[in-house]
Design a protein that fits this description.
By secondary structure, the chain is an all-beta fold. Helices cover about 0% and strands about 50% of the residues. Strand 5 and strand 6 form a beta hairpin.
Length: about 120
């Protein structure tokens, strides 16, 4: 089993920034890709960004690629999501997922999930 704990969410004004962290523990997640998804009330969980184990390849949803950056520190078993120029439509609970070798934009492909951290962008 892999346990994931997200942190770093909060309330921010339009145009502000936040940095989310996702710390992994338990069974090693060596080799796994990791991803961030988000879920707004009444909506399905949607893909935000993913990163391969090596960190050399990253993938983004179209509406965040110019504003968000995913990175990872394997020595700390942690993945990050730097979010800039936040907009009200970014408001959601952000979850990290892992348990997959190659990255995917489909939530059902990921085996392990964290509880999520709330991001609220006020206008």
């Amino acid at each position: 089993q892999v346990q994931l704990v997200e942190s770093g969410g909060g309330l921010v004004q339009v145009g502000g920034s936040l940095r989310l962290s996702c710390a992994a523990s338990g069974r090693t997640f060596s080799g796994y890709s990791m991803a961030w998804f988000r879920q707004a009330p009444g909506k399905e969980r949607e893909f935000v960004a993913a990163i391969r184990w090596s960190g050399g390849s990253t993938y983004y949803a179209d509406d965040v690629k110019a504003r968000f950056t995913i990175s990872r520190d394997n020595a700390k078993s942690t993945v990050y999501l730097q979010m800039n120029s936040l907009q009200p439509e970014d408001t959601a609970v952000y979850h990290c997922g892992t348990g997959i070798w190659g990255p995917s934009s489909r939530a059902r492909d990921y085996e392990y999930w964290g509880q999520g951290t709330q991001v609220t962008v006020s206008s």
